[in-house]
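I'd like us to work through together how a protein chain folds, taking it slowly. To get us started, please write out a protein record for me. Label the sequence line and the structure token line clearly, so we can match residues to local backbone shapes. Once you have written the record down, we can walk along the chain together.
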Amino acid sequence: MERKNIVANKKNSRNLTVAVLLSCSCLCMPWYAQAQDNSIHKDDIIHGDDIGNDENHKKNYWEVRVPNAKGEKQSFAIFDVYDKTNDPDGYDEEPESDADGTEMKDSNGETETPAVHKNYRDFQAGEKEAITDSLTYLSDMLGFANKDNLPLIELKLKDDKDDNAGAMSETAAFRDNKGKLTSFITGTELAEAIQAKDKLNGIPAEKYHAGVEINDASEKWYYDKFPILPENGTQSDYYGTVTHEMFHALGLAANLHNELTGHGIGSNITEKSDQGYDISRLVLNKYEVGLRDVFGRVSYYGKNLNWDEGDHIYFDAPDKQLGPDDGKNINLPSGYEFTSRTIKAITLDEYNELREKLKDDPDALSENIFYILQDEEKPEPDLDPEDNNSAANGNSSKDEQGKLADAGGLNSGRVSTQGGVSFTGKNVREVLTVDGKVAEIMPADGVHNIAVKGGIPINCFEGTGDEAYPELSHIELQNSLMSHQSYRNWCTFMEAELALLQDLGYDIDRSKYFGKSIYNSGSEHDYFGTINSKDWSSSQRQAIGLHVYGSYVDVKQAGSINASGNYSMGIRVDGVGNKVNIANYVSANGVGGNALAVTYGKEHAITLQKEASLVAMGNDGVAARFDFGSNELGDKAGYRGSYINAGDISGLGWTMDADDIPEAINGALVKSFDVNGTLAGKQAAIYISPNAYVQNINVMNGTSITGDIISKWNPEAIIYQNKNSENVIKPNLPEDEDGLTNLTFGVKADDNGNAIFDDKGNAEADESFKLNYDGNIKGAASLDVAVMGGELAFNGDADVHSVAISEGATLSGEGNYKIAKNSAFTNNGTFNLSQHLKETKIDGNYQQNDTGTLVASFNGQNQADTLKVTGTANLAGKVLLAPVAGYYSGNTTAHIIDASNVKNNGVTAELMNKDVSPILNFAITSQGTGSPAYTITASRDADAYSKCADDPISAGIAEALNKNAGSVQGDAQNLVGAIDFAGDKTAVNAAMKRLNPSIYNSSAQATLNIHNMLNTLDFLGSFSTYEPADSHTADAGKGRNAWRSMVMPFYSYTDQHNGLRGYTNHDSGVLGAMERTLDSGWTMGYHVAVNHQSTSDSSGSVKGEGFYAGTQASYAPAAWNGWSVFGSASVGIEQMRSHRNMYIGSYNGAADAKWTGYSGSLRLGTALTKETHAVKSGPFAAVQYSFVHRPSITEDGGAIRAHINSETYDSLRTQLGYQLTTRLRPLHDSRTQWQAYISAAWNHELLSDNGTTTYQLLDISGTTSIRDTAALYGRDSLSLMAGLTFRTPKKMDISMNIGSDMYRQGGSSIYGKIGLKWKF
């Protein structure tokens, strides 16, 4: 079919010359969509009058509402949907070739082909949601149109199964009331509708602003996800397709018109002449005004209508170039017309010739020509899957000279789109400039070496042979969504594409979508270096913190990156040979986030510094992803990866063209990934896709890894194979490249965080390396795991190609391993099975060499770590046997290797640590020369425990253990085992002391202190006897002989410690008392108290309640001149509960008991009180005896339980002190009076101790009684007491007291009361 340039010269004010529906999926790959016919379909182009021209269509509106910035649903556009339900009659379409219809003759005898009748289809499941999601992406970016300009878009759902789609929007034309154009640079009608802040005039509201067509997919459209990196597999991605087409309608569309001399860029739109007839004028849309030819010149000029070529006006100089907003300011002199240069295609040779001429002749270029490059057409591909020499089977034929002939390949059968044309604008130039340097962008896939500077490359010729035409409406950034390349691994826009939209007039905040983009490139020997130090954070979905597009870039990411939106990336790396040094926190914690994604190219080097992080903890999050992704067009259209360029072009079978692999991917995607910092990913910490080859992953000291390490790369086969074919399609690796990934732990790093290698290329080991890794390692076809230095504690499952432990390195943990059949687990260092007596499985072969050591644990119950090997176990070196902490008595057996085929090459065995226990002695005996099995004998010296004891208490416990440790049963074995492995002798001594139930001593001493406190409070109550307000008044003498009562809540806290021993105690309760004073000088009364006691020390705790009752009295006759005697006595009963806990290593024992005890006290003393006008004061002295009795008790619980013998504890102490009380004074002018008092006393304990607890350990049979004497925490102490009393006129006293005992040798107590006292 001959492609015709259609000129629509309609009078409609909105007509454009050629309104292009860019049939993007199809046009980019005619060899795929049209395997048997490479001609361009007629429906690749829609003319302006093709939109809304179906008179039979009934309006079928679908208003698309998407979330706005506030999260509320807002209308973005209205679609008028053509579907099968609403338009059941379908439509007629001009056929793509004669094969679509029957050849017929028209009335003039010319051949014609009848139109083909086609049908619409209905929405598929998920299709509306996908459109809405795509428009949400755009609305987030562009904002919303004025409600009066809500875009109306025609949407045709066609049932053609060719994965094709298209969109268009006419160039808007605006006129004044005289019919003259008011601007010669405008946007598309959809663009004008969205950008207009007020109601848009000139475009009828009922007219479509754009048209979109979406065919059915040959396999099925992919509706599952909308990520940045495609995941659609062999299906065509729907999200990217809709987003791509909408970009065209938004303004990425060049219109071509016919001049007498050829094609020009722009639209011929009519306006009224001064004489009233229609004339055609050039109108450029905002995209077209930014186009530049291969020499960087604009597409328009001012034409002298008198054909005086020398007088034409040109706009090529930077200061004269028009911008998107200059359409109203093109003021040409009279006799000049704004017009377009004629497009001319030249070959590379012609281009180079012109470049040479320009050196000597600045006028070498024709001023009225817009130059673009055009390559020669390549032959059609040979795609016969039945032919073993066909490209469909991964083969290429040879010509007569023996050179590889082009067998078609995946990049053949078409004219190159890389024609040197570019788009430039203010925002595009801004994006392309880093550190003041403007990027020069090479053509995609390196089809030639003509770089575009200061702009982004635009496609040129589309189609093949005679059907080729300049399309100029796609962005040819490598693999970009908006390209017309056969391979695209973007579903969203690059930053330069967003900048182009900005240059088309859209108000876009690029910083929401990109932190920084680097389009600059260096060379292999001269890198482009830069530092990105700015912190960046965005919650926008599908955002990227740092994008490296260029090649040979050395960038340090010094600022933090937080890409929290769904499907966002912290860092994306494309290009070739880039070095990325990550020195800060980088996160992508949204759904499907990737903190780092290396997605195209080869030979990249990534370094994660020690203090840096890559974190992606959202669902499906990956910390470090190495993945080309899918082809957005579907992998059958072109499947790329490291050494991979495959496809199912014809639908007849997959092909790999080994000679047509782009140089940019003819190598490993990543040559090194040096990890010093934190990797954390919910789906994976590291993910390597089936099409990505990573040579080296070096894990250094300081690394933290959360998540699995996954590699799906297989150097022996790509994921797509032809059924029933013996020919396996493989990556085209060089002969000296095995394609395996070296995952090496314990590599030494230099100051920059990079792995250190010697002159032979061997990594240097880091002896200080230490990492505990709980994830899984999956990479059966490609991962070679090695521990180079230090220790890796691996606790997951590893399904890998091989494992190797270097000499001096250690692999430990609870991991299990599956090894490839043609490989082995090789141990030249230390393989520590210390898994707490579990089985470690190696599904494969195990090779232990002379320098290798296998460490296995065993216990006293004939259990041991076992290495189960499903293949062959070749054993040399040695086995170290490590006893597990536990109980041992006599002999135990350890079977270390369980394998069907064991080759024992002289492996020896010894104890790993002879000093592991100061109690036990071990002897090892081998059971034979085959599979390693050993008898271990454990014994104890007769005085083993006594050698560790350092005081009478631990000596008594040690004596019991010496006699019975080898014969204990039940939980006592666990207790003895814990003591045996407590540590060195000092630790064993401390463990034995923990068996001492010192809490019973502590509890008794705390009860003795209760009596001290109660007696002190009683004494204060008697000392502050009732006194009349004024002895000289009529009330003098009243109140004597009257009973006074008091209620005093009290609280006491005691902290008693002497060295390592001691306790704390809390008392709280209520004291009640009654007393009266007689004229004879006697004061007498009674008291009762209820108390809650809580005592704790290192051995446990005791809690309980006590009830106390007693009497108090004093005698102070007037004749004694201030002298008095006083005394008190009390008895009590206590209901107590004890709980003891003991922790030794992993052992935890407990014991409990209950009992009822009793106690009492007697206090006698004398005092001298002298009165002055303000106070009364004087010395006092007292002696007090107290006792506490506890019956014998037997504890319940584990092996630490004991029988406690009955015991009485007592105290006899003296007290000498001084006290002072103020006279009653009125409180201000009220009848309430106040009185203050203080006292200080020195206490001395007369007894040498308070008592002794004797006990027997019940579960260590035959033990004698062990004695623990209650420690004195200092026989001398100082007691301080202060209080304040308020006496009310209603015979009510309110008192507050606080006191403290401070001991000379440590410890103190504090107590207080609030009392209410009244007389009756």
User: Anything to note?
Assistant: Residues 1026 and 1237 are 14 Å apart (CA to CA). The chain has a mean pLDDT of 85. The two ends are 125 Å apart (CA to CA). The longest strand covers residues 1123-1144.
